[in-house]
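Researcher: Re-running this chain for the archive, since the previous output was lost when a drive failed. Same request as before.
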Amino acid sequence: MIGDKFIVHNYGVSGRTLLKKGDHPYWNEDACQQARRWQPDLVLIMLGTNDTKQQNWKYASEFESDYRELLESFKNLPSHPTVFASLPVPVFQTKYGIRDSVLKLEFPMIKKAARREGVHVINLYKAMKPYGKDFFDGVHPDKTGAYFLARSVLQGIRNYRPPSR
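Model: Regenerated structure tokens:
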């Protein structure tokens, strides 16, 4: 979708948390270190869904600071990438302990962390709201849902206008 002038890597890991004290923190994954070593020009952070599980949300008071630290860790790479924070996609059915009601509590924290770090926010929650039928289990997108998700990310990137200096 983005064209052949770009190389896109997915360093996401299913089931991971933004919270460092979560049950499966993204911070501890090789993928997180690989993403930094790659020295990207653009980074999209899309974490928070698994943080809504009860065993993880007990650390909610650390969510914003952990989010800020992750944003900062990418912003400060030698490649100085443009970093985007995303509001997670909707949870169409409560499953696996993942709760949409808690997910919405993250939004102000993500927005505040992004604002403090000077990072643009892509609202994937709003963008994906019409596509619930394309989430096979109410949490994870199927092939069609993944297409609409990728399209929404691309639109968010294309709509971004860096602040004038």
